[in-house]
TrEMBL record:
Role noted for this protein: Upon serum stimulation, phosphorylates CDKN1B/p27Kip1, thus controlling CDKN1B subcellular location and cell cycle progression in G1 phase. May be involved in trafficking and/or processing of RNA.
Places the protein is found: Nucleus
GO terms, molecular function: ATP binding; protein serine/threonine kinase activity; ribonucleoprotein complex binding; RNA binding
First-listed, main subcellular location of the protein, grouped into a coarse class: nucleus
Organism: Fundulus heteroclitus
Protein name: Serine/threonine-protein kinase Kist
Domain Protein kinase, chain residue ranges per copy: 42-322
Catalytic activity: L-seryl-[protein] + ATP = O-phospho-L-seryl-[protein] + ADP + H(+); L-threonyl-[protein] + ATP = O-phospho-L-threonyl-[protein] + ADP + H(+)
EC number: 2.7.11.1
Region (Disordered): 1-24
Cell inner membrane keyword on record: no
CC terms in the record's Gene Ontology section: neuronal ribonucleoprotein granule; nucleus
InterPro entries xrefs: Kinase-like_dom_sf, Nucleotide-bd_a/b_plait_sf, Prot_kinase_dom, Protein_kinase_ATP_BS, RBD_domain_sf, RRM_dom, UHMK1, UHMK1_RRM
Length: 435
């Protein structure tokens, strides 16, 4: 039985918030089957992530609505404190489109009578960490590492800077900005900031150890070292530590390379500017040089060692990098969950160059895909990128996800009707969000 506090009124739910996998203090098999939330039963569909003090689950209700539940462990390190901290911050900063939405809070009583504190949250999609892994996996077989498109880097940079500008105006420091804490919302088509467990009011830092290794600003590194030695620094960290973290994240997205070892090296400490210049010079980007230089200068302004000289989020948003419009590539649409689905292994190359067959295939594919949701448009490129793949745009990401679920692994053994009544095109249809 759950004792509930009513959530703020809201009408929509999107897709997954996750916690970074770290030390686990709870048996992975001991996950709840359901939660009773606000008088309604929500079924646990999967565990999205687990940390020392909390686990995150994807849940669905009888109305087919989906959300995320972040359950803080009652008997783990700092579970209750973490719940009260994150709840307080989220309740204070609600309403920004680039920050995860808190729907409500409740207490869950499990089958053995243990009470746990829970947050009911907006369910988001893929994280920047996952996007980096997908990009790295595409560089196997001796191919060089490839960063993300300028459109994707710009989109993420603008969205998170908007979130940070708002957060900092409200007097908060996030203090744990990293790729795992930036997630994509398919329905809102933007990146959102999550996980405020280490956040604090600027000038009133109540968390000793902040930021994650690899994304930790120099002043936070010093403060953490002093705290570990039982000493206190002269002053708490400021909002500038969030800009440092974002600078590293954007550099990783541009280069396609994880930079943890690089930013911890002596070479970085001696001359980080030279390393940033080398990364930009060696990355074979196919877009014009001017926006690349603007991005490089923006990242440099975030990675200055002196926090007082580092750019603010509001100043960063004025960078000329954001005045240049970019269009998404087909591979961007595949990487980011959206109303657009990609169908693989379906169209034979010979069908692309016969106009009558091509038009018939377009019509038949649209008719088939409309069985699973409202189709806005359908595209089958005749040339690369995306040659022979089918891109289906649904009215919303919910229809797109449902179509993915129903069509994954399905085999079509019928003929494609053509004017000349050619033979079968037996093939399998595999739905993908960027496999």
């Amino acid at each position: 039985m759950a004792h509930c506090v009513p959530p703020e009124p809201t009408a929509k739910v999107q897709s997954p918030e996750s916690i970074p996998p770290s030390q686990v203090s709870v048996d992975q098999s001991m996950r709840p089957v359901l939660f009773e939330i606000f008088g309604e039963i929500w079924t646990v569909q999967s565990r999205l992530g687990q940390g020392v003090s909390a686990s995150v689950y994807q849940v669905s209700s009888g109305r087919a609505a989906t959300a995320a539940v972040k359950e803080f462990q009652a008997d783990s390190q700092g579970g209750d404190y973490g719940y009260h901290k994150e709840r307080a911050v989220l309740e204070d900063i609600q309403g920004h489109k680039n920050i995860v939405t808190l729907y409500g809070v409740f207490t869950n009583h499990n089958c053995v009578g243990v009470a746990t504190r829970c947050l009911l949250l907006e369910l988001l999609d893929v994280s920047v960490s996952e996007l980096l892994v997908r990009r790295s996996s595409g560089a196997k077989g001796g191919r060089p590492q490839k960063g993300h498109s300028m459109w994707l880097v710009q989109h993420c940079a603008r969205d998170i800077l908007e979130a940070l500008a708002f957060l900092h105006r409200e007097g908060y420091v996030h203090a744990d900005l990293k790729p795992r804490n930036i997630l994509w919302s398919a329905d809102d088509e933007c990146f959102k900031l999550i996980d405020f467990g280490l956040s604090f009011k600027q000038g009133n830092q109540d968390v000793k150890y902040i930021q994650t290794d690899g994304y930790r600003a120099p002043e936070a590194e010093l403060q953490n070292s002093l705290a570990q030695a039982g000493m206190e620094g002269d002053s708490g960290c400021t909002a500038a530590i969030d800009l440092w973290s974002l600078g590293v994240i954007l550099l990783e997205m541009f280069s396609g390379i994880k930079l943890k070892d690089t930013v911890r090296s002596q070479e970085w400490k001696d001359n980080s500017v030279a390393i940033v210049n080398h990364i930009f010079a060696s990355n074979g980007v196919t877009c014009p040089a001017i926006p690349v230089y603007h991005l490089r200068d923006l990242i440099k302004s975030m990675l200055l060692n002196n926090p007082k000289q580092r750019c603010t989020a509001e100043a960063a948003l004025l960078s000329p990098f954001f005045s240049i419009p970019f269009a998404p590539h087909i591979e961007d649409l595949v990487l980011l969950p959206s109303p657009v689905l990609r169908l693989l292994n379906l169209i034979d190359d010979s069908h692309l160059h016969n106009e009558e067959e091509y038009e018939d295939i377009l019509e038949d594919m649209k008719e088939e895909c409309q069985k699973y949701g409202s189709v806005v448009s359908l595209l089958i490129p005749k040339e690369n990128p995306g040659k022979g793949q089918v891109f289906v745009e649904y009215a919303n990401s919910s229809d797109s996800k449902e179509a993915q679920r129903l069509l994954t692994g399905r085999t079509f053994d019928g003929r494609f009707p053509t004017q000349r009544d050619k033979g079968f095109l037996p093939s399998s249809m595999v739905m993908s969000f960027g496999s």
